[in-house]
Design brief:
The chain is α+β, with helices and mostly antiparallel strands. It has 2 domains: 12-82, Glutaredoxin, CATH 3.40.30; 109-260, no CATH class. 49% of the residues lie in helices and 6% in strands. It has helices spanning 20-31, 46-53, 72-82, 96-111, 113-125, 143-160, 165-188, 198-210, 217-220, 252-260; strands spanning 12-15, 37-40, 61-64, 67-70. Helix 5 packs across helix 6. It is globular, with a radius of gyration of 18 Å. It starts with 11 loop residues before the first strand and ends with a helix.
Length: 262
Amino acid sequence: MLGATVTATAPKLYVQPASHPCAAVEAALTLKSIAYERVDLMPMSQLLVGPLRFGGTTVPALRIGSERVVGSRAIMRALDTLAPEPPLLPPPGDPRYARVLELERWGDEVFQAIPRRLLPAGFVRRPQAMESYLGDARLPLPVGVLRRAAPVVAQLLFAKSRHRDGDARADLAALPRQLERIDGWIAEGLLGDDQPNAADLQIGASIRLMMSVMDVRPLIAGRPAAQLTRYFPPIAGELEAGALPPEWLASPAVNRVSQTGD
């Protein structure tokens, strides 16, 4: 694990600061006590260096010897092969097996997109907040240079993924309904055990990141879904209240949840 003795043959994990799928994979590596080397990449630099270094253009990406694995779900499967215990999925004969796989897919393909749109929408308005999300990342540029570049990077992130205010606003309006689904899955026993499964990590990483957005945090705090953040260390960054337009928070669904805490 990061900070443990890392050998030359240890897996090498390519990440970006504050990436929630990267956090999910790091949590899986820690759960399995796998020592690894973390390589921090500048935002969007994976488009240039990824094909050569790990055979893809997205992170997380993992190199295990000559094997290259790209994407959080693919990496989870590779980790279960590398270190079977503790498993990230129930046994194939377990009735929960297919359900956990489906929740993992939903966490990756659907839920993960919400913070990916909300954070850039906030960074465009509060670019100085980006620095707080660097945490302990080791990047090739001094902090001062990164600070001056933050407004440009925020705009590029916003444009690169074709994020638009309308999408982010719609995500925020739909979030209470998504959280209700997660609360239901916890009540069913599919999520939230002391030992997390792959779906816990996929979904929990997104919840953890969204709770760093102070405008969004009241929608999540106190719900069963918030418990899924316990599988991760505290996040370094914070996007201050007021970064998202107040009218976004005034939609009936969002306003009702923020007032009642339900």
